């Protein structure tokens, strides 16, 4: 087997939407065949009991790197709504009470904002991506994208809260503002919180893989 097909780095996420985006975002610095997901590795269940995206991202990355012996990238992210004081924030994945129930999560958010006027519906996606080595070194990157919450879901691309988030950037000049679920993958990857967090990590990823 040629060296280049050996797994070199693990993406420590159980979220398939994130996984697809992370793979695309790393394509320019790591050959696709060197990037693997968690399947095939035995990693203990990780309790995300940190109080910030940074803490949870570091937890996921360091525990996975230690358990597998490979460098790991983890992503902790969520939607922070201005009028809710930054909620759902780190609780985004289980806002409705059921972890990963995307539709229930965003429907609850829309219901909570039902009386909030358009000009007060500002929000941002935040992401902290952490690179951890098996030796315990960590590097973190942070990314933010601003936008507003819709009054009803729009579009069926993307994942998570994408149908209810209208980014400020990347809109067409004419026409109705589009949600992230109506952006192409390339359009989302050009401005997303995840893309910005990974951009800050790329030098460290290259250095780790070449050492
Ligand atoms: O680009 C995004 N577009 C839409 N929604 C998003 C995005 N980025 C994060 N989100 C939402 C999904 C989930 O409700 C929460 C992340 O929670 P978070 O714990 O980081 O991820 P997770 O539990 O889904 O997977 P894992 O921990 O295995 O990486 O924020
Ligand atoms: Mg999670």
From TrEMBL:
Enzyme class, first EC level, given as a word: hydrolase
UniProt catalytic activity: ITP + H2O = IMP + diphosphate + H(+); XTP + H2O = XMP + diphosphate + H(+); dITP + H2O = dIMP + diphosphate + H(+)
Keyword Transcription regulation: no
Keywords: Hydrolase, Magnesium, Metal-binding, Nucleotide metabolism, Nucleotide-binding
Residues of the active site: 76
EC number(s) given by UniProt: 3.6.1.66
One MF term in the entry's GO annotations: ITP diphosphatase activity
Subunit structure: Homodimer.
Record protein name field: dITP/XTP pyrophosphatase
Organism, as annotated: Micrococcoides hystricis
Name of the encoding gene: rdgB
């Amino acid at each position: 087997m040629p060296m280049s097909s050996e797994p070199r780095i693990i993406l420590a996420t159980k979220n398939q939407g994130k996984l697809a985006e992370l793979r695309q975002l790393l394509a320019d610095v790591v050959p696709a065949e060197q990037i693997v997901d968690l399947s095939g590795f035995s990693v203990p269940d990780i309790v995300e009991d940190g109080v910030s995206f940074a803490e949870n991202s570091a937890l996921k990355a360091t525990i996975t790197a230690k358990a597998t012996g490979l460098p790991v990238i983890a992503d902790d992210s969520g939607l922070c709504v201005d009028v809710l004081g930054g909620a759902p924030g780190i609780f985004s994945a289980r806002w409705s009470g059921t972890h990963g129930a995307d539709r229930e999560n965003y429907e609850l958010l829309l219901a909570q904002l039902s009386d909030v006027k358009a000009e007060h519906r500002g929000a941002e996606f935040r992401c902290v991506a952490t690179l951890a080595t098996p030796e315990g070194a960590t590097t973190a990157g942070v990314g933010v994208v601003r936008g507003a919450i819709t009054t009803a879901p729009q579009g069926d691309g993307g994942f998570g809260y994408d149908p209810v988030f209208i980014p400020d950037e990347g809109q067409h000049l004419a026409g109705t503002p589009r949600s992230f679920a109506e952006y192409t993958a390339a359009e989302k990857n050009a401005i997303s919180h995840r893309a910005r967090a990974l951009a800050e990590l790329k030098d460290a990823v290259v250095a780790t893989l070449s050492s």
